[in-house]
Every structure is written in C-alpha cells, then in structure tokens.
Design brief:
Rossmann fold, six-stranded mixed β-sheet, 41% helix
Amino acid sequence: MIPRKLEQKLRQLAGQFPVVSLTGPRQSGKTTLVRHVFSQLKYVSLEIPDQREFALQDPRRFLAECSGGAVIDEIQRAPELFSYMQGMVDERNVPGQFILTGSQNFLLNQAVSQTLAGRVAILKLLPFSLVELQPTPHDESGLDRVLFRGFYPRIFDRGLDPTDFYQSYIQTYLERDVRQVKNIVDLLPFQKFLRLCAGRCGQILNLSALATETGITHNTAKAWLSILESSSIVFLLKPYFNNFSKRIIKSPKLYFVDPGIAAYLLGIEDPQQLTHHYARGVLFETLVLSEWIKGRCNLGREPNCFYWRDKTGHEVDLLIDSGGELTAVEIKSGDTVRSDYFDGFAYWNRLSHTDASHNVLIYGGRETQSRSRALLLGWRDIHRILAPREE
C-alpha cells in the first residue's frame, strides 16, 4: 500500500470526534485507507445487498452489532442509519465510534448535516498526489505519461491500462451514481454532457451553452454538473474579485479533478498523442490545480484557490489566498522557459500592490530556480509551493 498523506489527519480527528466521515470519488482509495488505519474495528460494506437490507430493515439491531465501533462503507446507501446513530453516539460519547465512507458526497453530506452536526468530522480523499507517488517506481514517468495516466490508485495497484480503466469507471460508477441521484432512463445525453465538459476544461463555465449543445434544459445541466462536482469529478475554480477592479469576470472556471479522466473523455488513447494535442496545456493546468486541492484536503482544509481575469484580457491562472496574502501562479506546459511566460505578472503586481516574491511560474520542464520576476518551478517540484505547510 502506498502511504496516504491524509492518514495523519484521519487518525487525529478519529481521536477527537465520535464520527469521522470520509468522502471522495469512487476508487480514490477510501476503503483501503480506513481498513488500514482502523483495522481493529468491525468492517461493514453497504454495497453488499444482504448487509444493506439488514441495515435498512432493522437499523437498531444493525448498529447494536457495531457497538464496539465500526467502519461502515458506502453509508449513503442506508441514510436511515444516521438518526439511530445519533442517539448511540450521544449515549456513549467516546471518540472514534464510527468511521463512515461514501462516494456520493451529495447524499452523504446532506444526511450528515441534518443528523450528526457537531458530532462528525468530514474529510475528503482524492486520488494519489505527485508527492505520494514520488517515493515509488511510478515517479519515473514523464509529464505526458502522467497527464494521460492520471492518479486513480487501481491503475497503479493492478497495472491497468488507463483507457480501459476510465471506460469502465465511467460506465460502472459515474452512470450508476447519476441514476441513483437523478432518475435518468437514457444515459446518452449524460455521456454527451460529460464529454462536452471535458472539452471545456479550463474554460469559464457557460451552463446555457452546455445545455444547448447537449440538448437538455438549463436546470438539468445545472443538476448534472452539481452531481459531478459533489462526486469530486469536476471542480469549479471561483474567480477572485476582492478589492480590485469591477471590470472582472465573475463566473467560475470548469476543471476536472483528475487529468487522466479528462484525457480519456477527450479521446486521447496514448500519451504520445499529447505531444502536440491542443488540450495539453489545460490538462497541465488540471494537474497543478489538482495538486493544490489534494494538499488542502490532506490537511482537512477547504481549497483557498481562485483565478482572476478582467474584461480586458488580463489574467492570473491561479491565486492562492493565505490569510489575505496572495500568491499569483502562472501555469505553462512548455518544457522550455520563455521570457513571455512572465509577462502576465507585471499588471497583476501593479494592481494588487505585490512584488515578485509573491509570483510563481510552474512549467512543464524540470529546472527550479529563483528568477527576478518569479520563482520558477519545474512540474515535479510543484509541492514546494503548492503543498500546504504541515500544521
């Protein structure tokens, strides 16, 4: 098992809260992690039909058999358990009674907030990060291979071909989850919607255009996007507009959480195709953004990242807000540094009254050095600025 950075925070919160909820996309390694960390606890999966039926038909008896503490996998399949769990938790009042996992964050978080507020710590596990893979043989891949392969653990554990994995992943998990949350009979429009989202990765979200091209209503497109976001498949990068010009863009940008699944949906079947592919740049942006989000999740924190663009075309790819101190990050997929890569910083520094010490340029090469206009980071050194400080 490749060690996960979230393990430390998971152990900490289990010693402080009676319930810990671990969400994240399917196949991100949640079950492997909780069974490793809490191997002393009873394990139950509600994906198994007879266990789910037991929990639904006799929740008191089901929880009584877990009175010594338990890991309950895919808890959202039996939401009735939460109300009964609340009474048991309040009666015993000891930390680490229940460790809950779920892949449908929308359903799980809704149930948790209604019944276990104040009693539960919520964490999110995303697929592997570059830092987690660096002590392993998988760290030797080049950038195009990394973008094509993505970071889902099963690809590494089983040596699966990424195209085979993502095809099965979408059919087996995403489409089933959509059917469970929304009663969809015909999945073809959803498949089209998903691919259109991949084609707009890194772009400012235009939900009306997405709905029109898919042939669905605006409300349906909004609901489907919400499912993808709550399932940690896509991420909406919000604009930053505090204390600056009013002539700015206020719509979010659409990104996928994992570059591999985006590459698959774009029809990329081999890493060599990425060499001159139009989407290489945005897949690299996806990688950088994903690494920041993973770093924050592994500390139990919300992402504190934004983008900035005004209506005259000035833009910052990524802004990190650390307690009011802004770090401007430009992202370039080229493996050779060009002088114009730094040009975007000048306008931003004047507008925000910051200097070059707050600028970072991440590019597709390997050299890392301090430059007069920004800290230059090769893609393998992303963690030097994007991995949050250990707390």
